[in-house]
Design a protein that fits this description.
4 strands, globular, two-stranded parallel sheet, mainly alpha, 207 residues
Length: 207
């Protein structure tokens, strides 16, 4: 690793540790830290698991992937913990997450991590989080796991059930018809009138 990149990485890690120390001092995380410690029981008792995860993240590679999986597990744990007995009695719906641009690296990585963790048999989290993700283009054709449906089929009930243990078995793909320029302009029409554009002004809708 070049010296400049190594110095930048060390600086970033030191900033991360300082921010974590300030947060821990202000909020005195208790149960949260215990949850992370339970996932890494091999750590000495005098080591803060959150600080260790911060260091691992900046190391990259397998260390960063372990941190990302841990954060997804924490996310699912928090969602499942927030939906308790009272919510079930009131039949409140599970939270809905809208995830855009999963064809880009960041969105695709998060979706892959979530599907991977949900497909893990030993995962203790049993949340029923609904994730609606959008992507440009067709879904990956090399993976036979996702089920496909048409949008009119989802008006009342999807009838979808997970089949198989592959991560992609947790997907239901639905193709969407592209909006025309006219429809896009109608959707973006403001309630109040806007000043008339000049010939040199950019058009309000472009394709």
């Amino acid at each position: 690793m070049p010296l400049a990149a190594q110095a930048a990485q060390q600086h970033s890690a030191s900033v991360s540790r300082a921010l974590h120390g300030e947060y821990a001092h202000r909020y005195r995380a208790g149960q949260e830290r215990d949850w992370y410690r339970a996932r890494f029981p091999q750590l000495p008792s005098n080591m803060d698991p959150l600080a260790v995860l911060g260091d691992w993240y900046h190391q990259g590679g397998d260390y960063r992937r372990a941190v990302e999986r841990t954060l997804v597990a924490a996310f699912r744990h928090d969602v499942a913990g927030a939906y308790g007995r009272l919510q079930r009695w009131n039949r409140e719906p599970w939270p809905l997450v809208l995830l855009d641009d999963v064809h880009l690296p960041a969105g695709g990585r998060f979706l892959d991590l979530l599907l991977e963790h949900r497909a893990t048999p030993e995962s203790p989290e049993r949340e029923e989080l609904v994730v609606v993700a959008t992507r440009l283009g067709e879904p990956p054709g090399s993976d036979p796991g996702p089920l496909a449906a048409e949008l009119p089929d989802l008006v009342r009930a999807s009838g979808w059930e997970r089949r198989g243990t592959a991560p992609s078995a947790g997907l239901l793909t639905v193709p969407l018809t592209a909006l025309s320029a006219t429809t896009s302009c109608r959707c973006s029409t403001p309630v109040r009138p806007v000043p008339r554009s000049t010939p040199t002004s950019p058009p309000p809708c472009t394709r």
